[in-house]
Automatic annotation (TrEMBL):
Enzyme class: transferase
Name of the protein: 4-diphosphocytidyl-2-C-methyl-D-erythritol kinase
Binding positions for ATP per the UniProt entry: 94-104
Native species: Maritimibacter dapengensis
Job of this protein: Catalyzes the phosphorylation of the position 2 hydroxy group of 4-diphosphocytidyl-2C-methyl-D-erythritol.
Family assignment from sequence similarity: Belongs to the GHMP kinase family. IspE subfamily.
Domain named GHMP kinase N-terminal: residues: 72-131
Record's catalysed reaction(s): 4-CDP-2-C-methyl-D-erythritol + ATP = 4-CDP-2-C-methyl-D-erythritol 2-phosphate + ADP + H(+)
Pfam families to which the protein is assigned, alphabetical: GHMP_kinases_C, GHMP_kinases_N
UniProt EC number: 2.7.1.148
Biological classification of the source: Bacteria, Pseudomonadati, Pseudomonadota, Alphaproteobacteria, Rhodobacterales
Residues of the GHMP kinase C-terminal domain: 191-265
């Protein structure tokens, strides 16, 4: 007996680590993090439809190279529900890019499957699909700690206007963590400030870090070029890498400034993936 709709679809927003402090390493090798995470108004799209057998169709401008079999996280997420579905995944985010494509797609699939099946609880194994899946299920600004399993919503993050840029090099997350020299770095302040608007948030962010920037740049020197290029954009207030890279973001005080800067980059660097975005 079915107890949900025949079809369900969810947006899978890009996850952006505004800060990423690596504060230690567990015995099993996983790293302890302290990260302020936000979500963008750009992302992938996932849809699931009841079917006789599992299938996956991957399309969209960033589909090239994304697995179309059971190794895709959307397939693994849907399979946890024990109900065959036809999945369609429209890729707009670059893969292996530090903006959680796989984790956000997995979270969107879990939400779509829960709607389709009428399940109130997510199946065992859901958050183990990836370290970022828990925060991606929340889909709102959050402070993420532990190895990604501790997620607290942060309610007072003012909207941020940004340009996201990726030089189209894939950076494997494990290699970047492995190359990080100092594993024990300072966390963010215990209590986060109550930012009075976008400018105050950007000023505070400027004093925070992404500890994975240095090892990612050592592996892919073009990331330093991306950050320098973003920093030099008119009205850019801050440029930083997200996650383990190679996607970087520049922050602006207005959406108009972000859109104008993105248009300049698209013209001068046609080989890069570039988009204006608003984070919340
Ligand atoms: C670095 C972060 C920051 O948000 O983002 P991305 O660069 O992936 O977007 C995440 O912690 C990544 O999350 P995710 O990409 O889901 O990680 P997983 O697939 O679970 O782990 C990939 C590998 O990264 C390393 N890893 C991941 C998370 C963590 N806290 N410590 C680690 O050392 C481990 O080597 C692990 O095998
Ligand atoms: N739905 C998916 N989208 C992108 N990559 C996926 C997906 N499912 C599995 N992968 C695999 O996961 C790897 C990491 O991709 P992704 O999750 O986008 O990166 P990151 O860990 O940097 O956020 C890719 O190289 C790809 O082979």
């Amino acid at each position: 007996m079915r107890n949900g709709p025949l079809f369900s679809k969810f947006f899978a927003p890009a996850k952006v680590n505004l800060t990423l402090h690596v504060t230690g390493q567990r015995k099993d090798g996983y790293h302890l993090l302290d990260s302020l995470v936000v979500f963008a108004d750009v992302g992938d799209r996932v849809a699931v439809r009841e079917a006789e057998a599992m299938s996956l169709d991957v399309s969209g401008p960033m589909a090239a190279g994304v697995p179309t079999d059971a190794s895709n996280l959307v397939w693994q997420a849907a399979a946890l529900f024990d109900r065959p579905v036809a999945i369609t995944l429209s890729k707009h985010l670059p893969a292996a890019a530090g903006i959680g494509g796989g984790s956000s797609d997995a979270a969107a699939t879990l939400l779509a499957m829960a709607e389709l099946t009428g399940e109130k609880r997510l199946p065992d194994g859901s958050v183990e699909l990836g370290a970022d899946v828990r925060v991606c299920l929340m889909r709102q600004a959050a402070r993420m700690s532990g190895i990604g399993e501790v997620v607290e919503p942060v309610g007072n993050v003012p909207p941020l206007h940004a340009v996201l840029a990726n030089p189209r090099v894939e950076v494997p997350t494990p290699a970047v963590f492995k190359a990080l020299e100092t594993k024990e770095n300072k966390p963010m302040s215990k209590a986060l400030p109550r930012w009075q608007g976008t400018k105050a948030l950007i000023d505070w962010l400027a004093a925070q870090r992404n500890d994975l920037e240095a090892p990612a740049m050592a592996a892919e020197p073009v990331i330093a070029e991306v950050i320098a290029t973003l920093r030099a954009l008119p009205q850019a207030r801050l440029a930083r890498m997200s996650g383990s890279g190679a996607t970087c973001f520049a922050l602006f005080e207005t959406r108009d400034a972000a859109e104008a800067a993105a248009a300049t980059l698209v013209d001068t660097l046609p080989g890069w993936w570039v988009t204006p975005a608003t984070f919340s």
